[in-house]
Every structure is written in C-alpha cells, then in structure tokens.
Amino acid sequence: MAEADPLVLVVDDDESVCRALARLLRSAGHAVRVFASAGEFRANADLDGRPCCLLLDVELPDINGLELQHEVGEIVPIIFISGHGDIPMTVHAMKAGACDFLPKPVRDDDLLRAVDHALERARQTHTKRCEANTLRQRFERLTRREREVMALVVTGRLNKQVASDLGTAEKTIKAHRARVMEKMEVTSLAQLVHLVDKVDLFSASDTRLSR
Question: Which InterPro entries is this protein grouped with (predicted)?
Fold first, then answer.
C-alpha cells in the first residue's frame, strides 16, 4: 500500500467491537489498525505518514478518550463511539473539534459516512502539510542573504530599494533574487508572494526578516 493511502485507526478496549469495526471498514475498502488502549495507540500509531482518522471510544482502560482527544485532536480527525455518551459529553467533544459522536451500537451506514467525511478532512490536511514541508525544504536551501532579499522583495520593494536597504549593489540584488526564484521553484514574483502567504516561512526567531 502506498504511503499516502488513507488509514482508519480504531481505539477500543472491547475486542469484539474492534473485530466488528475492522471487518466493516475493510469490507468498505479501508485500511485499518486497531489498538486496545490509549497507551498502545500512543506507542504505535504514526499520524504523520499518511492521511488517517481515529475511531475513538470514550471509556478506555488507561485514560478517558476525551483526554486523548486533547493530545491528538489537532493532528487527526476524530470520530467518537461510545455506549455511555450523554449530551454534555457530546457537546464537549464536538466543541473540541471531533468530527462526530456516534452511540453504540453504531449503524453501519452512519459509521461509514462519518469515516468518509473524516478521511476527506484528513486528506486535505495531509496535502496542505506536505505542501508546507516542501516549501520549507526549498526555503532551507536559501542562504541568509537570499532570505533577506526574499523578505524585502515580497513586500513589493524594487531591486534598487532592496539594495539600499541592505547596503549593496543593485546588480548583486538581481543575482540574489534570481537564485531565490530558482531555489523556490517559481517563475514570477506573484508566485513567490503566494508561497510566502501560504506558509509562514520566516520564523518568529528571525523577526528582522519577516514582512
């Protein structure tokens, strides 16, 4: 299976529930990994390699599912499944970003629909994360002076203005600018500005290079 193929992660301490969920999900064409506790999930789940969503029971033997949500909810879309859920618990989970909260026993159609929705969100997030990582890798190839030139150029300053700001010759700025365009793999200033707007390439620790 390719690295980017989506994966459904299931965390539930009820072995029969895990088997039933895994069987249903696999019959629908999903790849599945099952964990019996939050601790097992923490130790073995890979949330960065490919798009994934999490089917999470509320009542677990080690920690509450809502506590695990606080740890990974911003990384992976979560669908809660619980036989003990109530309205306050559901509201709390949804306000914290859960995709859905399904009561046990879960209807097959409801579960598969929720998983499809969560995986679509995961795909979008994964694509954005991969794009951001690619842009940061390109940015890391720039020298410090090239980053300084880039930070000024994307504000709309002309080459001669950048040269004055940095105390160097305009032809030197033109050369730096050309290398920036090459290393960032863009062909126009508009594309370069779009990349900077898309991802915060200039770190907070390098504030003098920020826009």
Answer: CheY-like_superfamily, Sig_transdc_resp-reg_C-effctor, Sig_transdc_resp-reg_receiver, Tscrpt_reg_LuxR_C, WH-like_DNA-bd_sf
pLDDT tens-digit series, residues 29-42:
999 999 999 999 99
Is 154 found in the same domain as 125?
no
The amino acid sitting at 121 is: R
Partner residues linked to 78 by β-bridges: 54
Same domain, 113 and 150: no
- Write out the residue range of the structural domain in which residue 45 sits: 7-135
Host H or E run for residue 41: helix 38-44
Over residues 47-62, mean pLDDT: 89
In the chain, % helix, strand, coil (3-state, to 5) comes to 55, 10, 30
**Cα 101 from Cα 121, distance rounded (Å):** 16
Instruction: Please indicate, yes or no, if residue 152 is contained in any of the structural domains.
Output: yes
Percent of the chain with pLDDT over 90: 68
β strands within 60-210, DSSP E: 78-82, 100-103
Domain boundary among 115, 135, 155: 135
Residue 1 lies in a domain: no
pTM, two decimals, is: 0.74
d(CA 103, CA 111): 10
Say which CATH number the domain at 151 has.
1.10.10.10
